[in-house]
Amino acid sequence: MPYDVRWHAPGTTTKRALALHAADHLGVTAEAVNSGRLCPRCGSSRHGRPWLRAYGVAHHVSLSRSGPHLVTAFADVPIGVDVESVADVARGWDSSLVLAPGETASTDLDRARAWSRKEAVLKQRGTGLLVPMASVVLADLDDEDWTDLDAPDGHVAAVSTSTAG
């Protein structure tokens, strides 16, 4: 499934990153873009799933930030993207929160990849971490794909798209 992923300069706000990415991806002016966030649990616009409209038309987007690194993603289907610091995941690792029964991750890099892949899937589903990562079994996904992305040194990143319909 085609998607478009962009990394943004440190200090770029998420709103600006989405506007610039939309301008390039959709061929619109940044001023034609309206974006924000909406939490599915509490309805807050201060956090939650990103949304974007260009000239009033909704588009599938996702974004993630880890330290100074910000990545945005566009697709014609639901999409999720995640970037994680390998060191941060290693410091906070709890396999029971991330791994499903039978899954393993023996190195810090493997653990960060599992986290990033699963969070990308959950973002694509629209639930985010409201659903436990351990409930996602990457090997058993039916209507979803995930792919590792090139990421800055010390980080991992993944993108997930829906293959349904």
From TrEMBL:
Pfam families linked: ACPS
Keywords: Transferase
Sequence ranges assigned to domain 4'-phosphopantetheinyl transferase in this UniProt record: 78-143
InterPro entries membership: 4-PPantetheinyl_Trfase_dom, 4-PPantetheinyl_Trfase_dom_sf
GO MF annotation terms: holo-[acyl-carrier-protein] synthase activity; magnesium ion binding
Signal peptide (residue range): none
Source species, domain of life: Bacteria
Residue ranges of the TM segments: none
Protein name: 4'-phosphopantetheinyl transferase
Source species of the chain: Nocardioides exalbidus
Organism classification: Bacteria, Bacillati, Actinomycetota, Actinomycetes, Propionibacteriales
